[in-house]
Amino acid sequence: MTMRSHIRLAVVLAMVALSPMVACRGDRSDKPPRQFLPDMDDQQRWNPQSLTKFFPDKRTMRTPVVGTVAFGMRSIVPPEGDEPWKQIVRAQRDDLLRADPQHYLGLTRQMDPAEAWQIDAPGLFVETIPIKVDLDLIRRGQERFNIYCAVCHGYAGEGGGVNETGMFGGMVGRRWSYAVPSFHDPKYLPTSSERTGRDGYIFYTARYGVEFGGKMPGYAHALSIDDTWAIVAYIRALQESWNGTLADVPEEQRRVLERQRGGIALQDTRGGTR
Ligand code: HEC
Fold it and tell me: What does each C-alpha distance from 47 to 8, 55, 61 come to in angstroms?
């Protein structure tokens, strides 16, 4: 055999060896495909929107862990428009960036909240609640206030110590009568010229405490931003109602209040049963 015919034979053999690989490309077959380099071709997975017995809620698609942000989920350019999903994306983006100090810190300028309590600059704390105040927000504020603030400040915000109605503040506030102030002190009213009268100051105190957690603990770990504004709105409602009389209540609700007052009297006389 010549050198040339050796080479020719080698080429033919190589083609025969490779032909199955080339031949199956694009062919249809019911048999499992040949995998010459399987690597990670086959893995266990769930289809989107399908059922599983593995999780108690039977969903293969999991909801994001609360308080986390999935990488790449936030668009740099916020979507414009009023569709609900766009509003949600914009709100989530704002919550992530926290770029608006009025809304997120209760301050008129961006700064480290740890420094704000020491600064008494006029206008540092925002004057009025920067979000929409409606009845739902005030109701939410009432619920959160009763959970987080009433233990010390009392359900009516009356603080510790005896006042003209003979009331004491909260459970803890009663023991701290010398320390817990009443929200009905003129210096906490919106008409006050002191910083303590500003909505932003009450917001800030609720989140970071008095003297940044020194004399009163902050509740930022437990309250969302909007829940904190809701509490501020409710404290304003408490202040408004403090000096109110039954005559200020609309006719319809007045009857409800009078019935409740009757109920309390009944409870008192019959030793707690109605
Ligand atoms: C563990 C008890 C406690 C709880 C709970 C509590 N506070 Fe206070 N708060 C205090 C005390 C004590 C003071 C007075 C501190 C001082 O100035 O000596 C105070 C003071 C304040 C002041 C006045 C601050 C100032 O500078 O005059 C505001 C406003 C206030 N609290 C809001 C709230 C809000 C809103 C909540 C609920 C989110 C809340 N507090 C929950 C104990 C508490």
Answer: 51, 14, 9
